Fold this protein.
Amino acid sequence: MNRSVTTSPTPRPPLLTAHPGTFEALYEAHFDFVFRCLRRLGVASANAEDACQEVFIVLHRRLLDLRADASARAFLFGIATRVASEHRRKQARTATLELPDDVPALAGATDPFVAAANAQAARQLERFLVALDADQRAVFMLVELEDFSVPEVCEALGAKLNTVYSRLRLARARFVRFLSEEGVPRE
């Protein structure tokens, strides 16, 4: 699936500290991934960049906890999940979970009808993700939208293989039902 279905961040702010080959490299390589995950995990667009910076502040503090054989994306997703959870709790006290209304067209869509269709599909995907429970949302996002392998998802979530497969199966079944309820033809 195309990865540019959520609001893209504004240009990255410069790093305050640079650790060549470690923190800076992780920041550059995974900023967009973390931003997408936070938005898909329900962080409001107005708070997404702040939340993204929180993830990287935690990474900076815990950089030595990242094992050489571990997946950096899985490690960052674990941090992003906790940061998003805290932001959702703050949002719940003041408002409901936000659905993006500023979803850009997918890159390369010059035809306005294609751009509009892409934006509508992105909003439908966001509505679906918000409707899932947190565990199924995380698994579905990582496997279907971020191309994680199931073992990587297990590492990121600290879940057992069969649990991840079960959550993925349930989320996929809900996605098929969601599409049929939305009147989207299956290809």
Summary: The radius of gyration is 17 Å. Residues 109-187 form a domain with the Arc Repressor Mutant, subunit A fold (CATH 1.10.10.10). Residues 1-6, 13-20, 96-106 have pLDDT under 50 and may be disordered. The chain has seven helices and no strands.
